[in-house]
Design a protein that fits this description.
Layout: H1 11-25, H2 34-41, H3 50-61, H4 71-81, E1 88-96, E2 99-106, H5 108-111, E3 116-119, E4 122-126, H6 131-146, H7 153-168, H8 170-180, H9 184-197
Parallel strand pairs: 2-4
Antiparallel strand pairs: 1-2, 3-4
């Protein structure tokens, strides 16, 4: 029988206590799903919203029935598999602010004219970029993942996501600009298409 414990002082202590409890009780309850265990491990305000998960599903697999498997099981599978036309070089999970972000490093052929993209709590970055440029692109995409401002539409989002990381790492920003030069025609074409589409 458990003994009464003190009330936690803050939410982080509560989350840590839940993680410890779930970790020790997993072997005793083999019938629990991954989704149930993950929900107990993370506070509710850190869970991905259903809309973010649905957006991730559409971006990775197109329209999928969200009810077939749990969202967390699919996200972990997608970290290792990616889209059918994507070649995943490596994966990691990083923390940005109070959010867990799933990062995949992809080949150049997988991303085309893009250096990276972000959907909800999911980020993809081109693996073949120089290290400083790759880190800048990662910071850029992580900024997108945590940006809550809405002014300026997609242009405002891009300005904020470039300015924030560039102030912290100007050499990384310069490295990303230099990496852009050989691909300038395809990048300009990409931005014109986005301007016309309004996204």
């Amino acid at each position: 029988m458990r003994e009464p414990t003190q009330e936690p002082k803050n939410k982080r202590e509560t989350a840590d206590a839940e993680v410890m409890e779930v970790t020790t009780s997993d072997s005793n309850e083999p019938g629990r799903t991954l989704d149930q265990r993950l929900q107990e491990m993370r506070p509710a305000d850190e869970l991905d919203t259903k809309q973010e998960i649905a957006d991730l599903e559409r971006a990775i697999h197109g329209d999928v029935n969200v009810e077939t498997t749990s969202p967390d099981e699919r996200i972990f599978e997608q970290l290792n598999s990616g889209r059918p036309n994507e070649t995943v070089v490596s994966t990691e999970i990083v923390t940005a602010g109070d959010r867990r972000i799933f990062v995949r490093y992809l080949t150049k052929e997988s991303l085309g004219a893009y250096f990276g993209y972000q959907v909800g709590s999911h980020v993809a970055v081109r693996h073949d970029l120089p290290p400083r440029a790759r880190n800048f692109v990662l910071q850029h995409e992580l900024y997108h993942a945590t940006d809550e401002a809405s002014w300026g539409g997609w242009i405002g989002r891009e300005l904020r996501a470039n300015a924030g990381p560039a102030l912290k790492d100007p050499i990384g920003a310069l490295s990303a600009i230099v990496a852009n030069i050989p691909e300038l025609p395809s990048r300009i074409s990409l931005y014109f298409r986005r301007l016309r589409a309004g996204s």
